[in-house]
Amino acid sequence: MEDEQKYASYNALARKALTMGIPITTLLIFACLIMVTGFGGVILFGLAKGLITPLMLCIVLFIIKFKCESDSRAMEAVSWDIKGGLFRLRCKASVISFNSSDDSQTRRKNHVREWFKNNRAN
């Protein structure tokens, strides 16, 4: 009998680098935004009103942490969703999503009509 060959798994190479459960680039961007909006808000609006935006950014960062707990590449999916939404806005498209199944009755009737039209016995 031939021994089964085993290969090293490189699943770790596909994972994103996480710090405190958050992708590093996302954490750095949010940390800079929190600092800038915190300092600017406190200087312009005072302590209570100036910390509203940094607090909201901290909540978003906490949500990102929960989203990335099971999937380190979850932020890539979010970025593709945002890119798709912006593309739909730019193109003024009303299509929300594409589906490969053919569930629509009118579409099914059109397919049947086309089939009969093209495959009619002469």
Radius of gyration: 25 Å
Instruction: Say how many strands there are.
Output: 2
Computed structural class: mainly alpha
Strand content: under 5%
Summarize the structure.
With 122 residues, this protein is mainly α. The chain is 61% helix and 3% strand.
Provide an overview of this structure.
The structure is a single chain. Strands 1-2 form a two-stranded antiparallel sheet. The mean pLDDT is 82. Helix 1 packs antiparallel against helix 3. The longest helix is centred in the first third of the chain and has 22 residues. It is mainly alpha-helical and 122 residues long.
Which features characterize this protein?
mainly alpha; 122 residues; 5 helices; two-stranded antiparallel sheet; single chain
Secondary structure elements and their pairing?
Elements: E1 18-19, E2 22-23, H1 24-45, H2 47-50, H3 52-67, H4 74-91, H5 105-118
Antiparallel strand pairs: 1-2
